[in-house]
Predict the 3D structure of the following.
Amino acid sequence: MRHFFFSVVALLAVAASAHAQGERVGSGAPAPEYRGGWTFTPTVGVAETFDDNITLFGNGTADTLNNDYVTTFFPSANLHYEGKHTHFGADYGGSFLGYRQFNGLDRWDQHGSLEMRREESARLRWFANASGATRPETDLIDLGGIPYRHTGATELTTRGGADYVLNPRDSLSFTAGYQDIRFERSDLLPAAFLHGGDILETLSEFRHRLDERLAVGADYSYRRAMVSGDPEHFDLHGVEGAIDYELSSAWSVSGAAGLVYMMPTALEPGRTGPAYRVALSHRRELMSFHVGYLQSYIPAFGFGGVIRAQELGGGLRAQLFHSRRWYTEHSITFRNDSPLAATDLQLPLRSLRETSVFGWEPDRWVRFEVFYARVDQTSLRPGGLLYRDRVGFQIVTSKPMRIE
């Protein structure tokens, strides 16, 4: 299962990198190749974007007066240590958004992160990380149940965990995380929108390897969420049976199915529903591909309460013309979020996010990219449809420097 493990890690790293870029759409700076010891990497870039819905108004609202060209400058710096058994990374960066006509929307968003990974022995590995970010708009937050608005937000996240190999066939892993989300308030923001809150979650996994390709096991998850404005917290327990299978040296598939239980509260009865997920990944030297689907219950930091979340997504990265200098990246995610409580204050949301990038890397530390991004969202109510298209280009350069 080693190939499958590293495929999942690579996909998570790509997702985390894209999520940390804030307003930018492209794939970011060239990936550095770290050697042993300390490395400092400064990065600077500039992007020019045409945005046809700068205010994230609904469809039919000031359509001809709601677009602008946006120039983005994004400096950042990374400090990295690579040892025999230890990995450490620290990153800080920001993006300054300058609007050509509507310069009252100009702003600066920032993000930073710390990460530590260590291999204590052949059996035990652990990790810990923390990150924080300010977002200029809510469509940049990669969570379900959040309506898209031109409203600032702050995210703080910490996570840690460990993997332990019991014997050549059995392994255990445990992950715990905490996330806090806060939204800017204004007189124009309805009280029922964008509550914010915090969530504590854990995931415990057991795997038994039947052979070199197949592993089976069980997962247990726990979430304790407090949505701002709700009278009390929500407790969610999930139990799933899981399977991981390596179809070939390039293809891997994983899946899980079970139940999720929401404990009763003063306002909501206890509920039990299905939870399942499936993912397929393909990885070759010049191309990687993944697609996945999941369903579960999650807290709704947008409208409050708990929602049944369904998510279907995929991604592709490929080298073009049999050259490492030309590449393309594509990703798409569709979410269907349905509130468990049938009230007018908790709206269903259907959201689509799509991104395409074509890039050229003339040198190891320089990238030129053109990109297109689209988001759609509807609350299934009259006037509840919005969309946003962005197209542009960016130039990014970075240069790792060894620290002796």
